[in-house]
């Protein structure tokens, strides 16, 4: 569009892999996953030397607009999706990204999460709902961001911490949240965002995430039978995706058993490949080492960048790292 902004958030361009990856798995079309991973890798390549990312960037120039780093709105789901994508698809690349980010932003510890959660719930009790921004260091409300748009984060955190600890205190927190929502935000036809938490003035607006996330996590907090004996990953919009073995990362076809050759030894035949033997198959199975062959950096042929891939023993061509994270002779589309 002519007047469309080219600015987007880190979450906006880095939180696509769950939905697009699932779509590729369901349709058999790898395009959706390919473009999502491409955007994710580009974003990750823009991180600072401290493994931190900015908050907003220009999608045309590829430059950061807002350099400040954090785990709040506009960037939170980026880190969330790295970890969830690793669980859903089994790709080690996502785990490596998340682990680096984890060390940089210091999140994920239950004890620390519990402490932060109690701070936020204290603010909720103080005002009746949670203001968009509160200055904990000064114990004061932000002068301009006094609104509460029915955000789900506190309910979601309560749900996850209850699942992790089974501490009944979180059920009481959930009950308090439900009571406050009914008392302060319920209107005819739905629930309304709070314009100012000091006056509880409402505005005629209900975000879609209220039903998709806030209500859903509160419901699951009190009835988690939906999750019993099942594994799900929730997208950042609260939509459940099943964790299926068939969706997990698999070796490319070039590494499956039907493509193995057999090398004879004095005792018995053993499965091997031209790659592992450094043998060029063009030499009529003679045990001659390929002069051009350079092994991949890892024995399982996984990779993060092209530099981790070697030179193919059969064709003497440089191997490259695929979007799925494996070294091979990949065709660029």
From TrEMBL:
InterPro entries assigned to the protein according to its UniProt record, in alphabetical order: 6hp_glycosidase-like_sf (IPR012341), EDEM1/2/3 (IPR044674), Glyco_hydro_47 (IPR001382), Seven-hairpin_glycosidases (IPR036026)
Classification via Pfam families: Glyco_hydro_47 (PF01532)
Localization of this protein: Endoplasmic reticulum
Binding site for Ca(2+): 236
GO CC, alphabetical: endoplasmic reticulum quality control compartment; membrane
Cofactor: Ca(2+)
Stretches of the chain forming a coiled coil according to its record: none
Gene Ontology biological process terms from the UniProt entry: carbohydrate metabolic process; endoplasmic reticulum mannose trimming
Keywords: Calcium, Endoplasmic reticulum, Glycoprotein, Metal-binding
Highest taxon of the lineage: Eukaryota
UniProt-listed SUPFAM superfamilies: Seven-hairpin glycosidases (SSF48225)
GO molecular function: calcium ion binding; mannosyl-oligosaccharide 1,2-alpha-mannosidase activity
Protein family according to the UniProt entry: Belongs to the glycosyl hydrolase 47 family.
Name the UniProt record assigns to this protein: Alpha-mannosidase i mns5
Organism: Quercus suber (Cork oak)
Gene name per UniProt: MNS5_0
